[in-house]
Specification:
about 400 residues; alpha/beta; Aspartate Aminotransferase, domain 1; Aspartate Aminotransferase, domain 2; 2 domains; 7-stranded mixed beta sheet; 4-stranded antiparallel beta sheet; 14 helices; about 40% helix
C-alpha cells in the first residue's frame, strides 16, 4: 500500500473546495484538463503584479526579471524530461501545435510522394489530422497500426508496416480514450534499427509517468501544460538538437530572427528560431511552477498512487451490472472509459453532473477508436493525484443510481 499525502495535495487545489449543484465537487475529467495548485496560480499572479515585461528584448530591470523567470522555466522542463539542452525545448501553445510544427517543418522537408508515415488506431485527432493534411499535400501515405479488443497495439502488425518507405513513426505514449500505455521503447528500438525518426505524443502520459527523452531515444516528444497542472495555452515540443537545427522555421516574426533586411533574413539560433513573436510569458512561468510542484511530490510516487486508484475503480466498475469497460490494456494509465446498457454516455455525463461528479462524455477526439469498438461515445472517468477512493465510491454509487432511474 502506497503512502501518499493526498489530503495535503487536495488542500493545495482551491477549486476542489467548490460545490456543484450543492454537492461536493468530484472532479474526474483530468484527461481533458487538470486543475491548478495554488502555487501555479500564485506564480502567475506574482509575475503580473511584480515582474511583468516582454522577454529577451529589454535591458531594463523588469524585462531582465521576466526573461530570467521565462528561461528558468525552460531549464526546469529540460531537467524534468532529461533533455540534453535547453536548445531542445521549444515553447508552443500545446501538443497540437507541436505536432503541426513538426509536420510543417520536418515533414515538408523530409517526406515526399509515396513515402509512408505510421500512426496507430488509438491516436487522438491531433496526431491524425496534421499527418493526413501533410499526405494530401505531398502525396505521402498514412499507415495505421491496428489495435485489439483490449485496446492494445498489435505489435507484430505494427512491425510489419515498417519498411524502406517509412519516413516517420508518430504514436501516442498513453491513449486519452483508453488509457493504454504503448510499448514506446520497443517501438523506438524497431524504428532506430532502420534509422526512422519517432515522435511521441506525450500529452496524456506526462502527468502520470516519469519521462526521460534521452533514455527513450525518441526524436520528438510533445505535451501540453494544461494536463500537467499548468495553465492552458502553453505546451512543449522537445526535439533532438540536430533535427531542430536542420528544420526550417515554422512561423516568421520577431525574436526568431538575427538580422532582417528587405533582401534576406538570418534566422535566430535554437530554441528561438521556432518561437516567433511575444510568447505566453505568464503561462510559461506557470508551467515552471507546476513542474516544481510535481518534482517535489515525485512522479514515481504519483504513478504508484494513481495505479492504486485505477485498480480500485476497475474492480468496483466490474461489479456494476450492465457496465462495460472500453480499454482493458495490461499496461494502462489512470483512465476508466465505459458504456452502460441502454444509456447514452451524454446522459451519463449529465446525470452524474447533477450529483457533482465531473466526467467526460463523447468521442474524446478519438473517433476512430469509437468506430473500432462500435460505440458512438464513452463516458470517461480519469484520475489525478488529488483524487481519492472515496470519490470513486461516489462515482460508482452515482452510476448505480442512474441505472436505477433508467430502469
Amino acid at each position: 500500500m502506497t503512502t501518499f499525502p493526498v489530503d495535503k495535495i487536495r488542500a493545495d487545489f482551491p477549486i476542489l473546495k467548490e460545490k456543484i449543484r450543492n454537492k461536493p465537487l468530484v472532479y474526474l475529467d483530468n484527461a481533458a484538463t487538470c486543475q491548478k495548485p495554488q502555487t501555479v496560480i500564485d506564480s502567475i499572479s506574482h509575475l503580473y503584479s511584480h515582474e511583468y515585461a516582454n522577454v529577451h528584448r529589454g535591458v531594463h530591470t523588469l524585462s531582465i526579471k521576466a526573461t530570467d523567470r521565462y528561461e528558468g522555466a525552460r531549464e526546469k522542463i529540460k531537467d524534468f524530461i532529461n533533455a540534453a539542452s535547453t536548445k531542445e525545448i521549444i515553447f508552443v501553445r500545446g501538443a497540437t501545435e507541436a505536432i503541426n510544427l513538426v509536420t510543417q517543418t520536418f515533414g515538408k522537408a523530409n517526406i515526399n510522394k509515396d513515402d509512408e508515415i505510421i500512426i496507430t488506431a488509438m491516436e487522438h485527432h491531433s496526431n491524425i489530422v496534421p499527418w493526413q493534411m501533410l499526405c494530401e499535400e505531398t502525396g505521402a501515405i498514412l499507415k495505421v497500426a491496428p489495435i485489439n479488443l483490449q485496446g492494445e497495439l498489435i505489435y507484430p502488425e505494427f512491425e510489419k508496416l515498417i519498411n524502406n518507405k517509412t519516413k516517420l513513426i508518430s504514436v501516442v505514449h498513453m491513449s486519452n480514450a483508453l488509457g493504454t500505455v504503448n510499448p514506446v521503447k520497443k517501438i523506438i528500438a524497431a524504428a532506430k534499427a532502420k534509422n526512422i525518426p519517432v515522435l511521441l505524443d506525450g500529452a496524456q502520459a506526462i502527468p502520470h509517468l516519469s519521462v526521460d527523452v534521452q533514455a527513450l531515444d525518441c526524436d520528438f516528444y510533445v505535451f501540453s501544460g494544461h494536463k500537467l497542472y499548468a495553465p492552458s495555452g502553453i505546451g512543449v515540443l522537445y526535439g533532438k538538437q540536430a533535427l531542430l537545427e536542420a528544420m526550417p522555421p515554422y512561423q516568421g516574426g520577431g525574436d526568431m530572427i538575427r538580422k532582417v533586411t528587405f533582401e534576406e533574413t538570418e534566422y535566430n539560433t535554437l530554441p528561438y528560431k521556432f518561437e516567433a513573436g511575444t510568447p505566453s510569458i505568464a503561462d510559461v512561468v506557470g508551467l515552471g511552477a507546476a513542474i516544481d510542484y510535481l518534482t517535489e511530490i515525485g512522479m514515481d510516487n504519483i504513478a504508484a498512487y494513481e495505479a492504486e486508484l485505477l485498480c480500485y475503480a476497475t474492480e468496483k466498475a466490474q461489479h456494476v451490472k450492465g457496465l462495460k469497460i472500453i480499454g482493458e490494456a495490461t499496461d494502462k494509465g489512470a483512465i476508466l472509459s465505459f458504456v452502460l446498457d441502454k444509456i447514452h454516455p451524454h446522459d451519463i455525463g449529465t446525470m452524474l453532473d447533477s450529483l457533482g461528479i465531473a466526467v467526460r462524455a463523447g468521442h474524446h477526439c478519438a473517433m476512430p477508436v469509437m468506430d473500432f469498438f462500435e460505440v458512438p461515445a464513452t463516458a470517461r472517468a480519469s484520475f489525478a493525484m488529488y483524487n481519492t477512493k472515496q470519490e470513486i465510491d461516489v462515482l460508482i454509487d452515482g452510476i448505480e443510481q442512474l441505472i436505477e432511474v433508467f430502469g
